[in-house]
Amino acid sequence: MIIRRPTSYELIELRGIAELQFRVPGDVLIPEDIHVAVSPNTNKIRIVFRSGVKYLGLRARDYRFNLYIPAGIVLNNNITHPHMRVYVKKEYASFIAKGKTLFCKHVLMADPEIKPDDEVLVVDPAGNLLAVGRSLIAGHEFVYYKRGEAVKIREGVSEIEKN
């Protein structure tokens, strides 16, 4: 991977993806001070870094972002509740913050507009970010199931604090 500053065209493209996927102004999620890791074979952006930390991943199959905790913090502070959020029961919050599996029975409520494969913010009942990940089921189904995995957790906030 080659790490470099994005071109102005790439910056516009990344901001457009952010606006479409997360419904947030592009410059809120994609500031000027980012760096990108580019594939040497395809010359496509694969990872976005901010302050030297992995911030966003760009999926090759559908050109959508994968969230990491630093980007999740920015989104959690800039989008209205409950958009993109899965709320976890209080007693399971510390478990999820460690990056452990989020099962349907641990979900208190969720944004009904979440679709399978959407990136989500996993939060406690007060709205504090616990983890980021990919939804495995639709938002309106979370509270109806009592078994099975709800969100594939990519990263928990406690994992970041350890590093």
What does this structure look like?
This protein is α+β, with helices and mostly antiparallel strands and 163 residues long. It folds into two domains: 2-72, Nuclear Transport Factor 2, Chain: A (Roll); 80-162, Roll (Archaeosine Trna-guanine Transglycosylase, Chain: A, domain 4). It is 25% helix and 33% strand. The protein has five helices and eleven strands. It has helices spanning 8-22, 26-29, 69-78, 93-97, 157-162, and strands at residues 2-4, 34-38, 45-50, 53-58, 65-67, 85-88, 102-103, 107-110, 119-123, 129-135, 149-156. Strands 7-11-10-9-6-8 form a six-stranded mixed sheet. β9 (119-123) and β10 form a beta hairpin. The two termini are 22 Å apart.
Notable traits:
single chain, alpha+beta, Archaeosine Trna-guanine Transglycosylase, Chain: A, domain 4, 2 domains, 5-stranded antiparallel β-sheet, 11 strands
- Backbone CA Rg: 16 Å
**Succession of helices and strands:** EHHEEEEHEHEEEEEH
Percentage of residues in DSSP E strands? 25-35%
| Topology, number of strands | 11
The helix tally amounts to 5
Q: Look at the structure and give the mean pLDDT.
A: 93
The CATH topology of the largest domain? Archaeosine Trna-guanine Transglycosylase, Chain: A, domain 4
Per CATH, the superfamily of the largest domain is: PUA domain
Task: Identify the CATH architecture of the largest domain.
Answer: Roll
- Oligomeric form of this entry? single chain
